[in-house]
Amino acid sequence: MTDHLVGIRTSYDTVATSYAELVQDGADWEPEGFDLLAKLADGRPVIDVGCGPGRTTALLAARGVQVTGIDLSPGMIAVARRDHPELDFRVGSMTGLDLPDGRLGGVLSWWSIIHLPRDVVPQAFAEFHRVLAPGGILLLGFHVGTESTHKTSGYGDLPMDLYVHRWLPEGLTEIAVKAGFTPYVDGDIPPDRLAFRK
């Protein structure tokens, strides 16, 4: 495992329990976004990559989606399994998904690409494209901007050691198009979310 992935995994292992307690409220437009993903997935399986403690995975499941939560952090997956024992959670990396080609109806990446180095993000998009079936939907949430910051503590002031990278929508769109995606245009989607079709 590369150094940047080790840092992400170790940091979220450290804060997993406090993160689950402190981050329970959803972002605005979340119900609309998850409704859209559920609709466009068209009954096919979905993955929630960077699922953390499983809150977003459970919201998708409540919409009738057959969903699997995937996270790099074993600590986060342990909390997700504790809090949502009826759902499927697996340890894994979005840069190398242990999934077959072309089977999924949707990929949710909800503020989970923000810790990947900028030059690694295209690798994740290529994996998202690979596992999606034709017409499948990729829904992203991210922080808007151009700066990168080093996060050394969080979620109860526990130690962390990872970077948070902000993105402009056009930068992520360029990466997505190069990976083979087509932007899904909807005037109701906020600027810190993007949707793409395979």
Describe the structure.
With 198 residues, the chain is of the alpha/beta class. It has a single domain (3-197), classed as Rossmann fold, CATH 3.40.50.150. The protein has 6 helices and 9 strands. The chain has helices spanning 3-22, 30-41, 55-61, 74-83, 121-131, 169-178; strands spanning 46-49, 67-71, 88-91, 104-110, 132-141, 148-154, 158-165, 182-183, 193-197. The strands form 2 sheets. The protein has a 7-stranded mixed sheet with strand order 3-2-1-4-5-9-8, sandwiched between helices. Helix 1 (3-22) packs parallel to helix 4 (74-83). The longest helix is centred in the N-terminal third of the chain and has 20 residues, at 3-22. It is globular and about 40 Å long. The model has no long low-confidence stretch (mean pLDDT 96).
**Average pLDDT over all residues:** 96
**Biggest sheet strand line-up:** 3-2-1-4-5-9-8
The gross shape turns out to be globular
As residue ranges, the low-confidence spans are: none
Query: How many β-strand runs?
Result: 9
Which structural class matches the secondary elements?
A: alpha/beta
Using only C-alpha atoms, the radius of gyration works out to 15 Å
- The name CATH uses for the topology is Rossmann fold
Percent of sequence in beta strands = 25-35%
Q: What would CATH call the architecture?
A: 3-Layer(aba) Sandwich
User: CATH superfamily membership, which one?
Assistant: Vaccinia Virus protein VP39
Number of domains: 1
